[in-house]
C-alpha cells in the first residue's frame, strides 16, 4: 500500500509466465501491434506511434527527451516535486538549456503561471510531470495544450504516477509526447514504459534520423543533430514497431506480455471506470486517515486519487511505524523524498490494490500500530470514516456520526 | 531453435510470476544482493560491481559505453560481424573517436592484429564482442587482457551471444567491463542486462560522478566530463545496488526475479557443465546439419558452441523453408544480417533448447522440409549423424557408418 511499486494484478503475472516466441514470429509482431492499439485507448489518443520503451518509466522519460532535445534547445520544466527535478536533470544531460519554475511542494501551477514562463523563456519544449508522486499532486494539464500550440511549444508530460488512476486525455489536452510506467495504477511490474507521440513529435524525431542516414551529403540544409542514444533512438524504435519492422533491440517479450495484459485489463474494465475506482477507494483511504486523526498533506483539490500523504505526528517515529506495519502486518507504506523525507507517510490505493478490503485492512492495521506507538487513537475511527465514505458514495445511509472525533494525534500522544 | 531469443526455461518463467515486493523491502534488496553474487559466479569474477541494467542486452552495452566514454575519447572496435558495427555505432553516439578494424565475416582476429591496432590508434578503450551471433564466431579474448594492460587500455566486451555456452572468464582474461543479456544461453527473456565492472572501470565511472556532485567548485583539476545519460549512469546505478541504496530508477522486479533464476539455475548446474552441455548439443547439431548435406559457414575452429550457420543451398528458398518449419512443425530457425541475409540459416542450440530431443526433432523436421523443397536428401542422414556424434561423445559404440553419404544439396536439387 505504498506509493508504488505495488502488488501486480495476478492476471498480469500469469500473462508474464507465458512461453516466449521468436522476435519476428507473426504471433510476436501481432502482440506488438495489438499492444499499440490497447495503449491508444489507455492514453486516449489516435497517435500511430504508441508503443513501449524497454526499460523502467525513467527509460521512457529519457527516450522522449534524448530523441526530442537537441543540445542547446531551451526546455521549460515546471517543478512541483521530486520528479520535476528528474525531468530537469535528464534534460540537462541531453544538453538542453533548462529553465525551471518552482511551486511549493504540495501545490501546483496555474496555467497563467506556466504561460508567463513560456513567454519569458521561449522554450522549444515544455516538460512537466502530470502527477508527482513525491507530493501526491496532479498538475492540471487540460489548458496547457492550447497554450503550447499558441506559442509553438512541444508539450511533453510523464504520467507514470497518475495514468489510469486520474483523468488523462492525451489528444484532447494537446499532448505531443507522453510517457508512463506499469508499476502504479496499471497494476504491473516496473520495467516497461508505454509512450505515445503526436505527428508533430514524430516529425521532430524523424528529422534527426535523416541526418544519420546520410541525407547531409545530398546538400539539404542541416538543422537537426543526430540523437545521442542508440537504445533510446525513437526514430529507430518507430521503425521497429512500425510496418518496416527494422531490427533494433530484441523486444523484451515477457515485459511486452505484461504491458499488454495491463492495458487489456484496463480496457476491459473501461478507462473511466478505472479512474472512478481509484477516486472511490482513494477517497475512502483519505477519509479513513483523517478519521484516525492524521492531517492530510498538500492541496487536496489537486491531489491524485491514488496516493495520499499524511503528516507523521510529532513524537511518532515514521520509520518505526512503517517497519512494524511491514514486519508484523505485511503492509508496506512509504515516506517521501527531499523536504518531505521523514515528515509524511505516503499511502497508495492503486492498481490491483485499489480495493475496499485493502483500504479497510490498512486502516485497521495502522490504527493498531499508531496505538502501540503511543497515540491516543479512538478505536475504529479510521475504518468507520472509510465505511461512511463508501456509504455516502453508494447513496446508502451513512452510519451514525462518529461519537468522538479523534483529537489531532499530535496533541494526544502519551509518549 | 533460432539464434535467440529462444524458449525460456519454464523455471525462469515461474520465478517471474511471483508477486512483487516493495522497492526497499528487505526481501527485495536481499534479492538484489544475492543476484550480484550469482552473477559473479556466472561471469567468473570477484568484481564488487556486478549487477543488472534494466533493459535489453543493448541497454547494457550503452550503459557501459556512455558511462566510460567521454566525448573525444579514442575507442578501438574490432568488427567481425553485425554486433561489432553496433558497438561502433553506440561509441560514436557517445562522442568517441572510433577506430575500426574489420575481419571478413566468418573469421576472427589474431591477438597480434588487435595489438597492432592498439599500438597504432592508442585507444582509451578496446570494445569487442565476444561472440557475434550474426556470424556465429567467437573472438578469442584470453590473450587480450594482458595486451590491454600493457598498453593501459580499458578492456570491454559484450558476451550476450556467448555467455554460459562458451568458456568465459572475466577476471582471468583481464576484462574491465562485461555486458550480457538473458535471451541466449542464460535461458531467460530479453529485458535485463547482467554486467560486471572491474575496480579500474569503476574508478573511471566514479570520476565522472564527482563532477556532477559539484566537486568542480572545490578547485580540483577537472579531467572528467559528466555522464550524458541519467538512466544509464553507472555511477548512480552502483550507488543504487550498493550499500548506499540511493534511489535511482525503480528496479524492474519481475525481470530481477527472472535474471536471478537464470543465474541460480546455471550455478546449480555448474558453469563449466553448462558450457559442456552447449558444446555437446551444438556439436550434434553441426554434425547433423552436415549429415543432411549442408555446408557449414565460417571458421569452425572459432565457432560458438550454441549457434551454427549453414549455407542455404542454391535453388532453395530460405524464407520458404523457415516458414514451413515454423508454420507446420512449430520450429523457428533464423537467417542473418547484412552480407549473410538470405544466404545462411542460423540454428541455435542454447539455453533451455540445448537438449538432445530438440536437436533430433529439428534435424528430423528440417529433413522433411528440405525434401519438400526439392532437395534429394538421404532419409535419416541428419539424425544418424547426430546420433553418431552423441555415441562418440559418450564413448559408446558408434553406429555403423552411414551407407550413403548425402551429396552436397546444392548439386542434388531436382527443382
UniProtKB/TrEMBL annotation, chains A, B:
Highest classification ranks of the organism: Bacteria, Bacillati, Actinomycetota, Actinomycetes, Micrococcales
EC number: 2.6.1.-
Names of required cofactors: pyridoxal 5'-phosphate
Keyword Transferase among record annotations: yes
InterPro entries with a match to the protein in the record: Aminotrans_V_dom, PyrdxlP-dep_Trfase, PyrdxlP-dep_Trfase_major, PyrdxlP-dep_Trfase_small, SP_NH2Trfase/AEP_transaminase
GO MF annotation: an example: transaminase activity
Keyword vocabulary terms for this entry: Aminotransferase, Pyridoxal phosphate, Transferase
Highest taxon in the source lineage: Bacteria
Family label: Belongs to the class-V pyridoxal-phosphate-dependent aminotransferase family.
Gene3D superfamilies, sorted: Aspartate Aminotransferase, domain 1 (3.90.1150.10), Type I PLP-dependent aspartate aminotransferase-like (Major domain) (3.40.640.10)
Protein name as it appears in the record: (S)-ureidoglycine-glyoxylate aminotransferase
PANTHER family registered for this protein in UniProt: ALANINE--GLYOXYLATE AMINOTRANSFERASE, AMINOTRANSFERASE CLASS V
Record domain Aminotransferase class V: where: 27-191
Pfam families: Aminotran_5
